[in-house]
Amino acid sequence: MIGLDMTTEMLELARRNAADAGVTNVEFVQGYLEDIPMPDASVDVIISNCVINLAADKNVVLREAARVLRPGGRFAVSDVIADPEMDDATRADMSKWTGCIAGALTDAEYRAALTAVGLVDVEVTETHRVHFHATAAIVRARKPDPRTRPDTLDTEPPDGKVRCRTRGGRERRWA
Questions:
Q1: Could you say which of 43, 77, 84, 133 would form a disulfide bridge with 48 (CB–CB 3.0 to 4.6 Å)?
Q2: Domain ranges of the chain
Q3: What are 139's strand-pairing partners?
Q4: Where do the record's region annotations for Disordered lie (predicted)?
């Protein structure tokens, strides 16, 4: 497990919390979401809590996330989602940035941005209201794995029978 933060203070706090909890399988790295100090395709899961909406260029952040995710890797973040009705003045109001409201993407913008960087199975699940024009949400996506054959997934056989192969190669059928 690797924790990433841009500030020394947060990294020190994370190290203390890990030590207090007896967690030893974690490494903390200083860096920026816009330039993650990890090799391509080296991360299984990205988890973030209400940070991406604070980034000035979310497209760069999401492109970096897609870069470091391994094929089949998961993206799961909690973030603020702007209602489509949120006016441009509120979205740009610097005093709203401290409340994590300004800068938030809409559901459609988040979906489009994640799709644009190559992630699939994008889900945005709103959890609760945090502002008149914004909600907290869980945003999930996955980096496709070229080793899987998406054309064979979620399809029904022509005869309507479900089939699978056991590890030994024997075909099983259910009506």
A1: 77
A2: 1-31, 39-141
A3: 77, 124
A4: 141-175
